[in-house]
What we know:
Radius of gyration: 38 Å
Number of helices: 20
Helix content: 40-55%
Structural class: alpha/beta
Amino acid sequence: MKKLLFSSLFPMYTRNIILAIGYGTVAIFSLWMSLLLRFDFAVPKEYWLGFKVTLLWILPIKLATLLIFGQFRSLLTYFSLSDAKRVILAMGTTTLIALCIWYGSKGSHVVPRGVIMTDFLISVGTLYSLRTLMRIYREGKADSEIAHLRRKKVAIIGAGEAGASLMHEIQSKSGLGMDVICFVDDDPQKKGSAIHGRKIMGNRADLPEIVNSLQITHAIIAMPRASPGVVRETVEILNKTGVQHDILPSVTQLLHRHVTVSHLRHVESEDLLGRDPVRLDDTAIESLIRDKVVLVTGAGGSIGSELCRQIASRGPKKIILLERSEPALFAIEQELVRDWKWIDIEPVAGSICNEARVEGVFEKEKPELVFHAAAHKHVPLMERQPDEAILNNSIGTMVISLAASRHASKKMILVSTDKAVNPTNVMGATKRVAELTVAAVQHDPKNNTILSSVRFGNVLGSSGSVIPTFRKQIEWGGPVTVTHPDVTRYFMSIPEAVGLILQSATQSKGGEVFVLDMGDPIKINDIARQMIELSGFRPDEDIKIEFTGLRPGEKLYEEPIHEGENIILTTHPKVRCLIRNSFNNSIIHELNHISSQLHSMSKDELKKWLNRIVPEYKIS
């Protein structure tokens, strides 16, 4: 029992001795410094005797008052406001006792009163400083230990320029909670070398072994130039290891931007689908846009907003954002102002169908380049309200085309769709009317503007497209609905679609329809299955796939080219130019005529009108 009591008390005695030595050192230092300050560091010899005598009695008084006011019980690294008050009380009590002794001895063999008062200030300041520094040290050490425990052990897949830039930023920002352990790269010559002090351990096939041996908890795919097939293989390997993973977007998505951690995102189905992205002529695109005033309609939409980003990255003089959705307009304006502060950004709230508003914009801004992306594109919705589809997609295009021609814009590009080819729905038919309208304005003898159309398939991840719909259905637990097991579509990424628009603008001479060689179409059923697997579920087991049948106006497959359209080669191997020798001279008259009675006509009457203008349109 005695041994146990001794062992439990011994640490307390040791601690108090150490504290007494520490506090005593502070007491000696403060009195000595106070004396030096009193005599401007030139202390007469006779005052050193008073210093020594005073030290003999003031030192035990200071230790006693600190003990009485609980400073031997307080943990040194925990310093609060209440501890600060007790330090002041302890040193204040010592100072009062010292002044009483000075008056009682009439200053004989005691340091001067000024020294006693200064000693109070230095004692309090020194104790405050030491205790505060010890608290800072404790909290910093604790935070460091916690941060270390919580840090993700990261492997960067891709030891190229993007991976190195990412590694540099992670190293410079400890608050990210990431610790890069190693790199992984398929280049055998890189194995064993290091980037910023982190070794390249092997290739993607070695990932399971690397993850297990180094206890990797997180992987970042930093291969912005990799094909969807390579990304798909990498994700499959990572899924088997159970490691969380993010991806750095593709080169086109990172266009002209420095690689940062903020670009990281989860791997999406868009990264796993399609073909190798088409590389476009950046030099020609930049030459077209630099120092120009550019108007983008539908600037807040999926295509319109990406157009704005890619145009901004090419150094225009000014970008006019025409958008009728106020929230969407505000969002893209704020993004552009934040990322490209040096470019003049002009947000304009308004509809392309409002002729007076459009005329005012062209009159004031004099845009040299016009990219017309505003459109209604939801097939089932437009099937039920053809009046709105005709108004926005067809009449709106006429308003923009005529304004561009009237104000002598250099070029105007219409964003069209492959659904305009042999259309079976209202949306496709109205976009075909839009193409015909652009061609008619182009062939007007009074026109000096170059007008063309760009036609492409489905855009991955755009508003209303199949990918966001499937994603929501998976979040809800299914089922994922596919219209038909054999339905196929051509797919492009949003950045790639916008790249095509800009590339086409560089080659446009007037009246063309540009089409991208999009490779083979993809089954929608395959997309659904890949998305379910990417979310960590098993198709048909965890998440069901239901086939609902083709909707009104929906095709089993899309066609990129009309019968009678001639293919002309362009300077780019993946961009095709379609020319139709005949065009509808009366299309402008037809649109002006129907606009006055648009909302008084029935759905069937409007569809019959569309069929008359576009004979290949098959009414659903």
